[in-house]
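Example record

One chain of 496 residues, shown exactly as stored in the release files.
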Amino acid sequence: MIPRLEVDLAIPARGSRQRVRSIHRQLRQAIIDGRLKPGARLPSTRAFASEHGLARNTACAVYDLLLAEGYIVARAGSGVFVAGIAPKHARPTGRGAVRVDDHLRRQAERFCCLRLPAIAAPSRIDMRLGIPDQSLFPFDVWRRLVGQALRELARIPGSYADAGVDGRLREAIAAHVSFSRAIACDASEIVACNGAQQAFDLLARVLVRPGRTCVAVEDPGYLPLRRVFAGAGARVAPVPVDEEGIIVDRIPKEARLICVTPSHQFPLGVAMSARRRRALLEFAGRAGAVIVEDDYDSEFRHGARPLDALRTLDGGELVVYVGTFSKSMFPALRLGFLLCPAWLRPALAAARAISAWHGRPVEEAALTAFVSEGHLARHIRKMRRVYSERRTALLAALHTHAGGWLKPTACHAGLHVTALAAGERKLDRLVERAHARGIAIDRIGRCATLPLKADGLALGFGACPERRIEEAVLTLLACAGGRGDRPRRASPAACA
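Predicted structure tokens for this chain:
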């Protein structure tokens, strides 16, 4: 197929002496400006002449000038292409350099500093944080439901979907929250969104006054959440975490938003104690603060009785509950929700309409059916067994091979185990060596801004098959430069 030259050319009248030079200058400027990209294939001289009503000799003369100056290259048997490297003397023409306001430049630079590190690619043994095993997801069912949604969409007039989201999806989410976390809620309290990250962004848009609002976050904690609020201009205050969760006495009195992961603290893995939950709610009540409860992988409990969600204990005025389907289904889905107080829901729904304008009707319809037909509940039950077995295998391997220097924290939920390291080991170097050997892991210190009593490793088992877990622990031990201290007689359950 002959490529079409998508450049608007002003062709001088037939007989003009400047015809060749004018077309040559316009094409050269298009290459310099980047409108014709390096490597782009140009039409043949015959096709170019036919498209623009030129004589073939005129087209050949234009191409010859560009070839002589190095702007295009001819490849025998292939055609003519824009040169891969623009000539050194090429300079844009037109107006001189302009000066953008310094305030705008500083604002743009501030956001560059908030950019998150690149997400590590999957490795031979994937022990990254928060990655579920999507190979076990029933994609055949999902494909059928997506196809069904597309067929329904084809039968209705074309329009942009309402960003408020179909009420059937909100009803399905309310039923899911009731099943998975025993939270009594109504569909009218739900705001659906594109994953937990958009949920945090909506809260920042609605509740943060730039330069004024103080947002308390757990430290160590979830960096993407922290940077959303920092990007909105909030004063972010890191608050240390201990074995009972966030230390309420260390929360600044001026904090008006408090972000926590009470069911499975990220990344330490501990659950917030009942005593600490009451203290946090009392603090928020006195300060008039809003608590953001990120319940990111609470569906996967491992043995211990789940504590009531802060949302349940609150009664519906102070706590905004954030949930996501990325862990219970698959990460690329990017659908989540907020369960919010009545006074806040209209503002969050309006903020979503402003930022997203329209919904994602195909995925949302498929998710509604997936939840309503019971597929999500069945998948969660299956994955609870799978993840519990992997967690047990990981704890046993740590106990047997690395009991002398890696001590797991008490965690009874989620897709990872955090193991604190004894001694002064350089965990950054260990992580690099592990990556070089094909094991993707991370350390908890990367999620902290305050000094840690002890650093450690966050070992995800969501995407790591049980048969590879012992191999991974032995490789980590080799990367640390030691064989570990093997305990004599103790139950692996003691590590839990």
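Notes: The chain has three domains: 1-96, 138-374, 378-495.
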